[in-house]
Design a protein that fits this description.
The protein contains four helices and no strands. With 133 residues, it is mainly α.
């Protein structure tokens, strides 16, 4: 039973690492922007890279996409931890050890999702401030 659950988690995580980059590349290919001299990246000397024609996105947008993808993946993992804790709690059958383990998993999942939500909000705020400059 335990190995089946571990195998399922590995398959889910592997699928996420395949699906998210494909979605990012598909989205990145559909949008094109013209080089702008008013972005915040020019203050850091990154405007030259963008105007060279090698990339179509601003460096802050690329870094922001990477960070938000990682935050999304961690959020999905934490939801899986919450589901695992709930299933473990429901199938504990009154065993105190399994109940404690389930409560720990649920608590860690809730704390983790709270941290990820705050990290997402801060990242979004900082990236919006950098892109609008």
């Amino acid at each position: 039973m335990k190995t089946n659950l571990i195998n399922l988690l590995v398959v889910i995580l592997a699928s996420l690492f395949i699906i998210f980059p494909i979605a990012q590349f598909c989205y990145a290919g559909t949008t094109t922007t013209t080089p702008s001299t008013t972005t915040g990246s020019d203050k850091y000397g990154l405007g030259d890279v963008k105007s060279s024609g090698l990339v179509t996105k601003d460096a802050t947008e690329v870094v922001g996409s990477i960070i938000q993808t990682i935050i999304g993946i961690v959020g999905v993992i934490l939801v899986v931890v919450l589901i695992y804790g709930g299933v473990l709690y429901m199938t504990s059958g009154g065993s105190e050890e399994k109940t404690k383990t389930a409560k720990k998993a649920i608590t860690y999942g809730i704390v983790g999702i709270t941290i990820i939500a705050l990290a997402f909000a801060v990242t979004r705020f900082v990236l919006d401030a950098l892109i609008k400059q």
